[in-house]
Amino acid sequence: MPNYRYKARSFEGADSSGTMQAVNERELAQTLKAQGLILIDAAAEGRKKGFNREISLPFLSGVSSTEKIMMTRNLGVMFSTGLSMVKIFEILSGQTKNKKLQAALIDIKEKVSKGENLSDGLAHYPHIFNELFVNMIKVGEESGTLDEIFQILSLQLGKEHELKSKIKNAMTYPAIIMMVMLVVGVVIITVVLPSLNTFFTSLNVPIPIYTKIVLVGGNFLSKNWWLLLVGPAALAGIVYMALKTKKGKWVLDTFLLRFPVLSQITKKSNSAFLIRSLSSLIASGVPLIRSLEISAKTVSNQYFANALIAASAKIKKGDKLSAALRENQNLFPYGVIEMIEVGEETGKTAVILKKLADFYEQEASAAVEKLAILIEPILIIFLGVSVGFFAFSIIQPMYSSLKFIGS
Q1: What does the pLDDT read at residue 401?
Q2: What element of type H or E holds 297?
Q3: 20 to 30 A from 344, CA-CA: which of 66, 155, 325, 379?
Q4: Residue 357 Cα distances to 133, 163, 224, 312, 336, angstroms
Q5: Integer Cα distance of 159 and 382 in angstroms
């Protein structure tokens, strides 16, 4: 039986090291866990520790939610089997194909092997692991419940990804229709209209003003075709940069909350995200005020973030969560605050929040699907009107020209 030299950390954060006989690293980790210690690193005496030849590559791409979910699930499974944190992150970094995530995992492994807490290592990469993720891991380290925390995080990330995917999928068909309409419009403007302009000019007959506008616009765009490529790209860039500003974000959030069709989707989806975040944090043992402050940083709409920050300030003064949120009850779908109040009275706030999150995720998905169904006939009508306008602008003067020639 080999003798292992190990580094471990207690649930209170105290570091310790020593030697212990074990059949393998898993048995060593299980033995230490029974003593209230988390295995950080281990090496059999007499065996040289391998040199890590991997280098951190430049951040070439983003990290998708699917990759985060798979990483969190694998992290939880390997931790439950008793592998050391260093070994876990060594395996995870070898599994991932994403260079950005791989570089982060390698660096976290090095930091943990040097004595940093896992939560502190993760905190160096806020663009990958948000504050909710880091704080839940920190609670798990302090309470010795990392097994449960990994399960909660996997569920949290999975539910968020599921809702976002449903929203994206529902909007795919309308987006395709819009792209087809754009391509058809470009072809008509750059190919068809210039030929018709030559035809009408050669006949030397009067044409209606609306036909002149169409022909002049088509002639201009056919000569300056590059505007059709640069224009949309430039407009998209300007809008993107504007939405990154505080005022631009406020304008977008206000529009989403006040536009009749989008208002219910915005309320239900944001409510689902923040309620699930609160549920996960409270169930993990994070204090309510801290849970609200963390959730405020993870929700996308600024109005909801401000409501949570205001609620945390009121709770500090002694208010309950339901009473603190009631001032902004217009932001939440009907029934949210009432159900939270029931949870407070029964002492099952985390359970109630979880059920509310499940319910409003389904409601948000259904609302998006209804919107997609509503958009389809609107797009078809718009397409029909556009085609009709072009057809009338062209056919009517052609008919007049033929009558002029015939007379």
Answers
A1: 67
A2: helix 288-298
A3: 155
A4: 18, 11, 51, 20, 10
A5: 35
CA angle 28, 32, 35 (to 5 degrees): 150
Q: How far apart are alpha carbons 273 and 156 in whole angstroms?
A: 9
pLDDT of amino acid 104? 92
Q: How many CA atoms lie within 13 A of 103 on its CB side?
A: 14
DSSP 244-284: HSHHHHHHHHHHHHHSHHHHHHHHHHHHHHHHHHHHHHHHT
Buried b (16+ CB within 10 A) or exposed e, 236-249: eeeeeeeeeeeeee
Per-residue b or e along 386-407, where b marks 16 or more CB atoms closer than 10 Å to that residue's CB: eeeebeebbeebbebbeeeeee
pLDDT digits (tens, 9 = 90+) for 207-243: 778 777 777 777 777 777 777 778 878 888 888 888 8
Start-to-end CA span in the chain (Å): 110
Residue found under tokens 């009558």: 403
**Residue 299, φ and ψ in degrees, nearest 5:** -80, 145
In angstroms, the CA 356 to CA 276 distance is: 8
pLDDT of residue 293: 86
For 160-407, CATH number out of 3.30.870.10, 3.40.50.300, 1.20.81.30, 3.40.190.10 equals 1.20.81.30
pLDDT < 50: residue spans in the chain: 47-61
- Interatomic CA distance for residues 34 and 1, integer angstroms: 20
Two tokens, residue 272: 């689902």
Is the dihedral angle over the CA atoms 306, 307, 312, 318 positive or is it negative?
positive
CB 34 within 8 A of CB 8: no
Give the domain ranges of the chain.
Answer: 3-44, 160-407
pLDDT tens digits for 37-56?
A: 666 667 776 544 443 333 33
